[in-house]
Amino acid sequence: MSIANPALPADQAPAKTELDGIYKKIFMRLIPFLMMLWILAWLDRVNIGFVKLTMLDDLKWSEAIYGLGAGIFFLGYFFFEVPSNLLLQKIGAKKTIMRITIGWGLTSIAMMFVKTAGMFYFLRFLLGVFEAGFYPGIILYLTFWFPNDRRAKAFGMFMSASAFAGVIGGPLAGAIMTNLNGVNGWAGWQWVFLIEGVPSVLAGIATYFYLTDKPDQAHWLTERERSLVHADLERDAASLGRREHSLLASLKDGKIWLMIMIYFCIVAANSSLTFYGPTLVKEVGFTSPMAVGWIMAAAYLCGAAGMIFNGFHSDKHQESRYHCGLAAALGSASLLAVALLLKTSPLLTLVMLALAIVGTMSAIPVFWQMPNRFLSGAAAAGGVALINSVANLAGFGAPWMLGVIKTSTGQLTTGLYVVAAFEICATILILMFVPAFKKSSPVARTTPQETRIPPQKWTTTHD
What is the pTM of this model? Predict the structure, then answer.
């Protein structure tokens, strides 16, 4: 039930420091919990990259089977992401996220019983179905709580959880596979699916009791705080102009398809690093699951730092084009270096792999600042999900391509060249076709007699 938000008298208008304190309170209430959920989602999604180190031999599968199974997850994403995000807009975040989280946890647990390639494909697809809507749903959810000039920090911290999951996931999977292999007659990789799936089910139940759908329902904010946030978000929406349009209009909108192409290129790189990063570490000579886990943990720790810094810096300077485009360029150049050095310099290969993770992951949170400048409300629910679902087809294609190339040639070099080319295309598209938006002043939005910023038009004018 919503709590009333009475209009705030002009003489009670907030100082910027008061709003800063309120948004810090919201940040601390929501972001750590959402990060925990994203860590669990990421672990259940990508643990396949670690268990493949022994799972393929146990089940006598080829790299092509693995690549298709890893990528087919994103087909489930593609078909169910838009409906899931529209459902979140209709029934609320906590019910939607509870369903998603419990579903992916149970599916992850079921993965421990995989025996055939067909069952592997089905469960990976089902995992994508359940996770569909979570990531873009949280992007949408955070727009209910933070104005545009505060979102990059919130997005960056939330999305950095995927990097922290890499920090945790590698050593955790390595320890489980090393110490529990053979216990109860199960292989180490089976224990990974069980141990990493159960917490998601429990977290899904907790979600229903912890999350609040919108600020006007937040019992943990005072009446004045709810009113201030409500008024600030209303002013923020007004300053950006009218941006509502239907999902059908999104399908016809060239801006949406430009965003899809950009994000497709970034996802191609990110999914390749996610599902084949451990394999690359193994190829330079580290065969122990524990060693691979710790090396990937160090790389993802660097990625987490890059994501957080880039998000904070983007918020500070109210700029997203260069923050996204140059981060993608770093990722592309580093992937190219990995391909060139893979067989000649193990140490430099690992350094370049870490930089590829830093660049690619740092581009993601600031990317979402761009579509959020011209989407809101129901249009955001459908538009964000459309961008994410279509672009994530790269998450299906890239791992499959790498698996086929690895099976046919015995190496990943050619595939890495292709992925690096995709990522540099993201930089080119951003810098050539995405306009520079005018900076909005947070102070102007918080004064009683604010100056309205004209609606921002999509032009080809650049910084």
Answer: 0.76
